[in-house]
Write a structure and sequence with these properties.
Blueprint lengths: L10 E4 L7 H7 L4 E6 L3 H4 L2 H8 L4 E5 L8 H13 L4 E6 L1 H13 L6 H5 L13 E5 L11 E6 L4 E6 L7 E4 L9 H17 L9 H23 L4 H14 L13 H13 L3 H15 L1 H14 L7 H18 L16 H11 L13 H11 L1
Parallel strand pairs: 1-8, 2-3, 2-4, 4-5, 5-8
Antiparallel strand pairs: 6-7
This protein binds 5,6-dihydroxy-NADP and zinc ion.
Amino acid sequence: MNNFDKYNPTHIAFGKEQIERLPQLLTKSGAKKILLAFGGGSIKSNGIYDRVVKALSNFDVIEFSGIEANPQYATLMKAVELVKSNDIDFILAVGGGSVIDGIKFVSGAAKYDGEPWDVLSKKDGCTFKDAVPFGTVLTLPATGSEANSGAVISREETKEKLTMGGAMFFPVFSVCEPGVVASLPKRQIANGIADAYMHTLEQYLTMPMGNRLQERHAEGILLTLREIAHDLIANPSDFTLAANFMYAATHALNGNLRAGVAYDWATHMIGHELTALFGIDHARTLAIIAPRLYENQYENKKQMLAQYGARVLGIEGPQEFTARTAIVETEIFFQSLGIDTHLSDYTNNTNEVAQEIKNRFIQRGWLKMGERGAITPDDVEQIVLKSI
Ligand code: NZQ
Ligand code: ZN
């Protein structure tokens, strides 16, 4: 087990009728002038908007809507201006990972004097040093953004999708009502299950390091997601299924699994390129890349693949058989959720995509990815080629 720092200050308010606790949560947070930020129309049609507005009736509130899936820099910069020009001292993000991530960026950019994109592109010396505090009302379990300090921001002009983070980007609180799952399209529920599943695998399918508790925790999340997945897609109004989904997704990326372990994240970094280039849903990019990445890194990952195969998938047999079958079964699981797992299922425009992504990794200096630093730009090219 490696040394680790474990820090997560986010207050999770979980269960039924938690939105009605917003006045208390906001008062405790010292919020006076609030930016209420959300995405498109979903919160207006499922009743969440009305409940939030009612709960905020005694606060000074300005609204900002239109944060899109894979939140766009240009949109978010409009929110930055609103925060600056109205002396906003607290932001409430109501939405899924995109709205929450977008607000993490806004909270840092509103306190930053330079060009905020320089921070995302990791230009020398450019970092966010302060942030407007924010809370969230989660409407889509998937990313874990409600309980972590990371964000991913897209820029249409340059077809880039880049990450940011830091301890000041933990939400002060997150309201997590499993009932929000009822209005989600089946596609978004499938995406959420696949994303949470992949967050777990990124921190588990690496190398044995003697982290028994973290491994069992990861296996518990994977088993929970597999147990509920199909029933939940068939019956999104089932509160207990939705609650298990929501809490599993939070646990997959709230810092618990990463404590003391080696982690990979290369599937995510390659996947972000597919979203940036083709607009493919985040979770679907992971389902496209992961099976090919695990084949590419088979020798490095075979022990954990075999453990996953035996303990989570119930595969019996020699290590080679269990590990190889685990890769196949993972892809079958994603397909069983209705997720296509090849790039050509989403676009015909695949010429030179592998070369393009390889070149981007080289330009950014991402030369040694994965838990061992064993995934080179050449491997990235091969993984993408095989994913087509
Ligand atoms: O905009 P509205 O109308 O609200 O519609 C949204 C959106 O179109 C809709 N939706 C959300 N809640 C709903 C609902 N529809 C009906 N009922 C509800 N209760 O769902 C659509 C997708 O929402 P989005 O927020 O984009 O989905 P998700 O939560 O999957 O977030 C994806 C984004 O998060 C990033 C991804 O890269 C992507 O940009 N990630 C963030 C991470 C983090 N911060 O830790 C980690 C992840 O790996 C991921 O990269
Ligand atoms: Zn993800």
